[in-house]
Write a structure and sequence with these properties.
By secondary structure, this protein is α+β, with helices and mostly antiparallel strands. The chain folds into two domains: about 280 residues, Butyryl-CoA Dehydrogenase, subunit A, domain 2, CATH 2.40.110; about 160 residues, Up-down Bundle (Butyryl-CoA Dehydrogenase, subunit A, domain 3). It has a six-stranded mixed β-sheet with strand order 2-1-10-11-7-6, with no helix packed on it. Strands 5-8-9-12 form a four-stranded mixed β-sheet. A two-stranded antiparallel sheet has the order 3-4. Bound molecules: flavin-adenine dinucleotide. Flavin-adenine dinucleotide binds next to β5, β7, α15 and α16.
């Protein structure tokens, strides 16, 4: 099959999945006004793969079928391969301004790492390879659910007062029966498959009870017994139009709780089962973190560039860029972009060949992006608010441009360097990017999408090789003492 068109992707979403939103079953995510915008965006991403001038940048020949498949499935063997993947990520995330972070490349690159290191999955290695090849050669979209529901975070998932998290409840000849819930599957409304895997920094204890939770599998979204509960959309029904919410109406990715109502997962779909060692260590063993970090850092770069460009455009309208402190804030945005760009490129330059034969981008600079970007993004929203100021609060709906007060609007919404229509549309974009429900969700996403940053920071500190730095300071003290003699 190879790469799919947008139309084929949309057809795939009409699979009878059980997706609930605002208390009712959504019959067709491509037609539902709350979800159709995101579906359209997904279709655009897939259509880009077919543009003749982008074909070589966005696709490569499947080693199995020879057909064109998505570049994010490529198993990188060289630094040049990493650069090829980067260029492809950029195409998608420039198109979505970095606001559709869970575009399929995120999971695709994860799957390519899993398959490259398939042996680490032990008895299920064959299934991992088969699912990767199917996803690649059929251009499937997967969401991933790694975390357990928030019930009581003081106890591990196997020792909670209320036993709600998804786990294996029995085995049959056909497969494993799974019952319970998983959070949180972004993109579930727009995915073909659901991938359940461990969360990298939430290990399970090595106990008999925990084994039932040590699950990894990939199943079609419409599998019997899978229920998805989507949060409400980011635009209040009946408020404004896509002109007023240009980002919200296009790039809301959907976030779902997944409920497994005695779902039979066939044995051939199982990727890991009851092995705590594999469950706790798989990402490290297959070197998936660097590959995923490379993808999301490119996404972050695209997002930072958009926010910077938005700020540049905004300040020109009312000429506040004449003021030094405003220039200082714009410089902050420029510096953020430079830092992100440098981290992406350094991760490629310092990439290393791994034990499983793939070129892994250096994790250090990508970990830094993971740690720094949430604050960079929040700050960019704040800067847009500071420079847009009251203009962000008084900007009317785009409907006023042609409404009964059109003449007044044309006169009084002008700015020094923009006519009223341009100014209103620009300020509405700025509102959507920096202070809407959509923007808050983006800020939350950046904080948490890759796990808990607090524990991530702790892991970084523990894992970092501190000894040479401590030794250097100790040597310095000795040198100074030698040079200065004993302290009085
Ligand atoms: C918008 C969005 C999209 C997401 N998309 C996905 C997705 O597609 N797939 C997916 O699998 N996950 C997704 N996630 C979930 C994400 O993995 C989790 O939010 C993240 O791992 C943090 O876990 P939590 O939300 O359960 O927070 P909790 O673990 O409940 O943490 C809440 C607070 O308590 C603190 N805390 C909790 N436990 C501890 C502890 N043991 N030690 C110290 N502090 C602790 C945390 O630091 C935090 O401040 C998404 C999250 C968001 C917000």
């Amino acid at each position: 099959m190879g790469i799919r068109t947008g139309a084929q992707v949309l057809e795939g979403f009409r699979d009878g999945r059980q997706l609930y939103m605002d208390g009712t079953l959504v019959r067709d995510v491509t037609k539902d006004p709350r979800l159709a915008g995101g579906a359209r965006t997904m279709a655009q991403l897939f259509d880009m793969q077919h543009q003749p001038e982008l074909l070589d940048e966005m696709t490569y020949a499947s080693p199995r079928t020879g057909e064109r498949v998505g570049m994010s499935f490529l198993q990188a063997r060289t630094r040049e391969d990493l650069a090829r993947r980067r260029k492809m990520y950029r195409r998608w995330h420039d198109h979505t301004l970095g606001m559709f972070g869970r575009a399929p490349d995120f999971v695709n690159v994860m799957l390519s790492s899993f398959a490259a290191g398939a042996e680490a999955f032990g008895p299920y290695a064959k299934n991992v390879t088969a699912y990767y090849e199917k996803a690649r050669d059929e251009d499937r979209i997967a969401t991933h659910s790694l975390t357990n529901p928030q019930v009581d975070r003081t106890h591990n998932v196997a020792a909670q007062a209320k036993d709600l998290a998804a786990k294996a409840v029995r085995e049959t000849d056909a497969g494993v029966v799974v019952r319970g819930a998983r959070m949180l599957a972004t993109l579930a409304a727009y995915s073909d498959d659901l991938l359940v895997m461990p969360a990298p920094s939430y290990p399970l204890p090595n106990t008999e009870e925990a084994k039932a939770f040590a699950l990894g599998f990939a199943i079609p979204m419409a599998t019997k017994g899978v229920k998805l509960i989507n949060r409400p959309g980011v635009i209040q029904p009946g408020v404004g139009s896509s002109h007023d919410f240009p980002l919200s109406s296009r790039f809301d990715e959907s976030d779902c709780m997944v409920i497994f109502d005695d779902v039979l997962v066939p044995w051939e779909n199982i990727l890991m089962y009851r092995d705590i060692d594999i469950f706790n260590n798989i990402y490290r063993r297959v070197h998936a973190m660097g590959a995923m970090g490379h993808q999301f850092s490119v996404k972050d770069l695209c997002k930072a560039e958009f926010m910077m460009g938005l700020a540049f455009t905004l300040v020109r309208t009312t000429r506040v860029d004449e003021f030094l402190h405003v220039q200082g804030m714009l410089a902050e945005l420029i510096n953020s972009v430079q830092v992100l760009r440098s981290c992406v490129l350094t991760s490629e330059q310092e990439a290393e060949m791994t034990s499983v034969g793939v070129m892994a981008p250096a994790m250090g600079p990508l970990g830094a992006v993971r740690y720094l970007f949430p604050e960079m993004f929040r700050r960019s929203c704040e800067i847009i608010q500071i420079i847009g100021a009251g203009g962000l609060a008084m900007v009317p709906s785009c409907a006023e441009i042609d409404g009964p007060l059109a003449d007044d609007v044309r006169t009084y919404y002008q700015a020094a360097a923009a006519d009223s229509s341009t100014r209103i549309r620009l300020f509405r974009l700025a509102v959507d990017a920096s202070m809407s429900t959509f923007s808050s969700r983006q800020q939350l996403y950046e904080r948490y999408f890759a796990g808990d940053p607090v524990r991530g920071a702790g892991n970084l500190y523990h894992g970092f090789d501190k000894e040479p730095h401590v030794a250097r300071v100790n040597a310095l003290l000795e040198r100074f003492q030698r040079e200065d003699g004993p302290a009085r």
